[in-house]
């Protein structure tokens, strides 16, 4: 049984105190869980930046978790596969005819504008391609976004009440004759809409919308009452506001007052499993702790939401050499260069293939979110952690460095207790 030593907790507290006095650091929450229970959870800053009267962020504060929702969606798909309701070999076009006419777009990573160079896709996209992000679906990486304005992408556009998925697919298609792909399905790896389309597949396979499915099969069984696609009353009462830094890495923060996603419950008709979920740090740690418990015990917990066999698939590398080269190129500016060669992709998250010195071990799943959020789950050590912030510009290097420092202090402060003798080892 792993726990946080008294000196280890003191070290993390001291770093928290230091960060709380730095105007260059936004409001955030850092939390850690072991297999048996949570071992650290503390927030810093106000729910509205610069406004102490708005209340302090804490473990129950709601955050748009953005791409941290991807592994939840992928786990849900694995649940359906276990129940025989979904096959990894199912062509996506069997469920959504729009995918019968995809096009391969050249220079898709160079410009956010529609390319005039494209050709019909030859390969059939399957559920497996969505699971492993080898579908060819991609986010444009070169859109010149003015971050001090409403976001302009299919996630943030108004949602159709009559045909929300169809409208979303039309936004992705844009001016192309078919849904654009970066490469033939199965050929490489790309970061993009795969998790969202997988969520729509879950809806078709289960007969529920994604909110209903996740509440019934994951959130309610784990008592995750502050996780939803909706800003429910319990979420709204303790919800952080998005903030904005004009000077990357060094400037102070101010409230961000623009459109992000749809917030009116009466107008939420689309459930994007790759980016729309709201959750608290305590809830997300509950989810990660449950996964640790399934992997750690001699027998699965009686309330296990998925089998150990399926969970091992959830945390298994999935890419060939071309896909691995693509994800490593994608992550070069997001993690220390020395760790890049050790990264693979599993299901809705990256995974380490070697131990990171002084940090997470081989086989750890991890990912990050658009509004500067991070998590990792380390089954070997028996810990998982979250660092949740909520600001633009996205993936700012400040929080990445802070996350690394927290992780190093955490691992330096962990100790293991022998359950029979009670002796720390």
UniProtKB/TrEMBL annotation:
It holds the Pfam family Beta-lactamase. PANTHER family: BETA-LACTAMASE FAMILY PROTEIN (AFU_ORTHOLOGUE AFUA_5G07500), BETA-LACTAMASE-RELATED. It comes from Coprinellus micaceus (Glistening ink-cap mushroom). Residues 12-393 form the Beta-lactamase-related domain. It comes from the Eukaryota. PROSITE patterns: PROKAR_LIPOPROTEIN. This is Beta-lactamase/transpeptidase-like protein.
